Amino acid sequence: MAALDATHDPALRSWVSSANDPGGDFPIQNLPLAVFRRAGSGAAFRGGVAIGDQVLDLGALEALRPFAGLAAQALAAAARPTLNELMGQGAAPRASLRGALSEALRTGSAHEARLRALLVPQSAVEYAVPAEVGDYTDFYASIHHATAVGRLFRPDNPLLPNYKWVPIAYHGRASSLRVSGCGIQRPVGQVLPAGGAHPELAATRRLDYELEVGIYIGCGNALGHPVPLAQAEEHVFGLCLLNDWSARDVQSWEYQPLGPFLAKNFATSVSPWVVTLEALAPYRTPWARPPAEPAPLAYLDDAETRRAGGFDLELEVWLDTARMRAGGLGPQRLSHANFRDSWWTVSQMVTHHTVNGCNLRPGDLFGSGTQSGPGAEEGGSLLELSGGGKRGIALAGGESRSFLEDGDRVIFRAWCERPGFARIGFGELAGTVLPAAA
Question: I need a surface site. Which of 180, 324, 397, 416 has the fewest CB within 10 A?
């Protein structure tokens, strides 16, 4: 696991003044990565790092050759149109680049004069999905979500017996990944009308979001070579926010016997910024099972995972509707949760995914599955918050929602904070529902 070092010092300040806002997402202790270009420019995408309300252009920085050794190697990879090459280099070059950027961006740096010209306001850029994602796997790692959803369909047996033993997942569709800000077209699929005997082809009437954490793979593993738990985080680059949009009426008709298909593969949204494991080092938490619960099989359990396998990551869902925007009303928070409540850790997901010899590649993406907490206000989807659509959620301006309507904008936010360390955030993941194709 990444160790604490000088880059985490809460006393560090940046010459980029907006990075010193204690409530901001992107202080100098964070330094997340994305790929970007000036909005509307048509230029090639290239790597960037967030600092305050600015993006440091890593493509332009690489042309200055400011660093040496592993940091220079990582900077050259980070300047590319995707982050795959950097992801594949592993932890040491990434940490070296982080250290060099921290020194270059802190108050008193000799690099300030040269780097000021390389800053671009975040308000003036557009983003792409940070990596070329070859494969996307979506897990089901929140026992609170699994139990709540199971209770809607199987009141007497909400949690299937394998859940507490197996990190359940399905393979999603990488081709429909979209970056934050892209509109999401309401999908069409087969649905079975309430009380009907025959299905029909129709636009979904039960469109939902799922609040998830995205996990980008760094170094891959060779086919046939499982990744032991103790080495799993060596294969993880960083985390983002992920929205696994879901058509619940399509899902309920098609998911048996093989699981998710058209109800899920029409769109998955990711936030533009990837927060590295190094940035997250101060916010690790113990991972444990309640005493009455079965311990994981040996390949999914070790002392280090129990000591600090979790992440204290606060998660929120906000919603604004077309009417709310027209009326000048701000977004309304629907729910909150914390990633530390996940039944399975990131390292356990990596190890289980490869235990059969499956090979992961740099830039592969995992979804954590919907993250819900134990409280009623901690549901990570409308399916939970509305009791399967049976009750509406009251919104400002007199509206209510059981599922999403056209024009609704869903916003995810996340951050970590801990006494003695700086608060760091993930930025926003936003998507607006568009009407179904005519």
Answer: 397
Mean per-residue pLDDT for 63-70?
Answer: 97
Domain range list for the chain:
6-128, 136-434
pLDDT for position 363: 98
pLDDT tens digit string along 197-206? Answer: 999 999 999 9
Whether pLDDT at 2 is above 90: no
> What would the mean pLDDT of 251-278 be, rounded to a whole number?
95
CATH no. for 6-128: 2.30.30.230
The catalytic residue positions are 145
What is the share, in percent, of the chain residues with pLDDT greater than 70?
100
Task: Using a pLDDT cut of 90, give the percent of the chain over it.
Answer: 95
As given in the structure block, the two tokens for residue 397 are 């301006």
3-state secondary structure the chain: CCCCCHHHCCCCCECCHHHHCCCCCCCCCCCCEEEEEECCCCCCCEEEEEECCEEEEHHHHHHHCCCCHHHHHHHHHHCCCCCHHHHHHCHHHHHHHHHHHHHHHECCCCCHHHHHCCEEEHHHEEEECCCCCCCEEEECCCHHHHHHHHHHHCCCCCCCCCCCCCCCEEECCHHHEEECCCCEECCEEEECCCCCCCCEEEECCCEECCEEEEEEECCCCCCCCCCCHHHHHHHEEEEEEEECCEEHHHHHHHCCCCCCCCCCCCCEEECCCEEECCCCHHHEECCCCCCCCCCCCHHHCCHHHHHHCEECCEEEEEEECHHHHHCCCCCEEEEEEEHHHCCCCHHHHHHHHHCCCCCCCCCCEEECCCCCCCCHHHCCCHHHHCCCCCCCEECCCCCEECCECCCCEEEEEEEECCCCCCCEEEEEEEEEEECCCC
CATH architecture of 136-434: Alpha-Beta Complex (3.90)
